[in-house]
Amino acid sequence: MTLIVIITYFLLLLGVSRLAASRSNNNVFFRGERKSPWYMVAFGMVGASISGVSFVSVPGMVIHSGFSYLMVCAGFILGYVIVAYVLLPYYYRHGVTSIYTILKPAGNAAYKTGASFFLLSKLLGTGAKFFVPCYIISLMLGWHISLTILMLFTLVWLYTRRGGIKTLVWTDTLQTLCMLVTLIIIIWQVGQSLGGYTGNMGLISHMRHICPVGNFSPLSLALSFLSGAFIVIVMTGLDQDMMQKNLTCKSLRDAQKDMCTYGVAFLPVNALFLLLGALLVILSNRQGTPLPSNPDDLLIRYALGHTPLIFLLGILATSFSTVDSSLTALTTTFCIDICERPDDERLRKRTHLTMALLLALCVFCFSLSDTTSLIDVIYTLVGYTYGPLLGLFSFALLHGNRQSRHAPVICIAAPMLCYVISLAVSRYTTYHMGYELLMLNGMLTYCGLYATSCQNEKYKQK
Length: 462
Known about the structure:
By secondary structure, this protein is an all-alpha fold. It contains 21 helices and two strands.
């Protein structure tokens, strides 16, 4: 039955992709012909932003962190507003397809370094995000995880290879709908196990005793809010994957409406995931079942035992919507920024297949690792790999008349220095650096670029 659900879901996505993209060329694949309705992009982006890891990990976060993650999500809203009214106008004014072309005035070294760091970041991040869904599906199928990884990436490659970004605008809409329906059904079923609506209201009023948030100081919550804003600025505003769909809107105003709409929607959707986690904790306590040592297992344990097929639908929806857009963005960045051949359709097709194989390899490597919460791993990776992007874009936008030839060295040295600082802080103080590593990394990169920069020769001539 599991395999039948997967094949049926794939055929549905393939049908939508064929209807969305009746023809295949680089303008369709990279730009979606600039005709996407903003409301479709906004709705689809909710599902694309919530990966299979979020679907599994966020409910489990209540075990140790309570509802403090909502402060990070609140910071997301500020980040989306900044992206909508600071970065989007800049991208639309320059008519970019790949956002990393903005780095060209800072020098070819900075331009290539920025694109390369995105490729590295997206490969690692997507590999971490897609591991959990692959692992769960392999358990349900009874297959070895390597075979499951190969099958799932083949399916994603098949329905994205033709229409690229134009396909994703429509398939992500379908996948977001499936994700929300799945989430609501599981919450309803857990609620029924706890006595329905009336019983749940009494339990929720005492939830602070089960999922405390009082252990977090105002400083840590404020840093979480600020980090949430910077995470969005970097993971959305400086990420080709997230921005590519927004750049397919008909106008800047449509893109801004799209960005702000799904930015606000992100908070209540994550609140529903945390509510589900809290209800599962309450249910475990009531039944006398010990909480899992791995927080990610909280939802998995319940869903596989009570709602396996519904859970499978949610996992497929959230994971496919993440991987398909990552695959398209990686292809776009390599063709446009690394090779600088945006019109070469043969290169695009070869790159698309190669990136699918590289992503599959990354997922397999993550399957060999052991971690308690992959969402923390992803945000840690973001801090180290997206930090240089934050510094590069800040330098390019603020000092368009300067360039640095030492960008590659600086962008490698800054994360290494951040790691040393993080170890020192943990060793000599009681404070443990978390999401704020992203801001520190970006600041170090920016300072290094500015200190080693000189005036652009083109501006000297003028």
